[in-house]
Amino acid sequence: xxxxxxxxxxxxxxxxxxxxxxxxxxxxxxxxxxxxxxxxxxxxxxxxxxxxxxxxxxxxxxxxxxxxxxxxxxxxxxxxxxxxxxxxxxxxxxxxxxxxxxxxxxxxxxxxxxxxxxxxxxxxxxxxxxxxxxxxxxxxxxxxxxxxxxxxxxxxxxxxxxxxxxxxxxxxxxxxxxxxxxxxxxxxxxxxxxxxxxxxxxxxxxxxxxxxxxxxxxxxxxxxxxxxxxxxxxxxxxxxxxxxxxxxxxxxxxxxxxxxxxxxxxxxxxxxxxxxxxxxxxxxxxxxxxxxxxxxxxxxxxxxxxxxxxxxxxxxxxxxxxxxxxxxxxxxxxxxxxxxxxxxxxxxxxxxxxxxxxxxxxxxxxxxxxxxxxxxxxxxxxxxxxxxxxxxxxxxxxxxxxxxxxxxxxxxxxx
Length: 415
Hints:
The chain is α/β, with parallel strands linked by helices. Among the domains are: 82-149 and 365-413, no CATH class; 193-361, no CATH class. It is built from twelve helices and nine strands. Strand 6 and strand 7 form a beta hairpin. The longest helix is centred in the N-terminal third of the chain and has 32 residues, at 51-82. Mean pLDDT is 82; it is low at 1-7, 12-31 and 231-238. It is found in: Mitochondrion.
């Protein structure tokens, strides 16, 4: 009886505890359910904006800019004081750093590897088209409007001086005179500066010079429009009245150019007519000087629609203006300078409409020229005198391989 009573009590107790065990198990499962995914998990938290840090950065930038201005102003004051000390104008081996010639026409071979001082007012007057970028950078960083007189420039000037006075009887022993020259050479060897100096010299001599300092602008930028009737302008259409502009017999070149400025539809035609009229001038020497000349032998930035979904690139020779001025197959004096900073690419040696012997190599700085250039930068306080040694400037020359831009950049790092 006792065993039966214990068995019944145990069974009753287990039946009462069963629901409690199931409920606790359900609670445990509910408590262990997975949490919903965090949308920001794995992403970097956004940094908190600190206004004090921004103010600190702005103050540092302002301080750096102000200190640079103070250093530049202090250097200019020192250079102004140095002008009163002629002993500082000494180049390599004690020879004069600046030439005593007052004009480019009076330069001789003895003036090579010296600096010629320009007047900025006179430069802007003689070259209203603008100065080459390399010339502007040289003036700004050296704080003086002076350029190196190179032997290659003197030879270029003498060549065109002889070409202008070329007599029918040519001396066989004299150097060959070229009326058409294409200046080619490595990047930053001074082609554009030499061309600008040649134009400056020719205009000071009374020549009539057609100067294009940025030939790439003729093939890039703007709009291309091929009018089947007029072929003029970008969508200007037919001119009012007659499609031809009459010019009187006594019209000057200035009046011709003014007509092209006042009548947009006739601008291209006036430019072509100007080329024809310049070829007839015999009273004064005429020179055509084109910088970035290699841009006229490749494809332009313009395109012509062929179908609804395709366009054909336009070559430079298809442009009326370029076609009128590109050719060198004539008796007029013409010089073009290649510009490898325009990313045109390498052209073949023989170019169309260019004489086979017209292309000459324009060199970078030679050893002696680099010596003078480094002494000039020393004179202009681009480098400290205690750091300037023969070994240091030779290192800069060999590192830059005679590149003028790189030499001007490396000189301040002399230590």
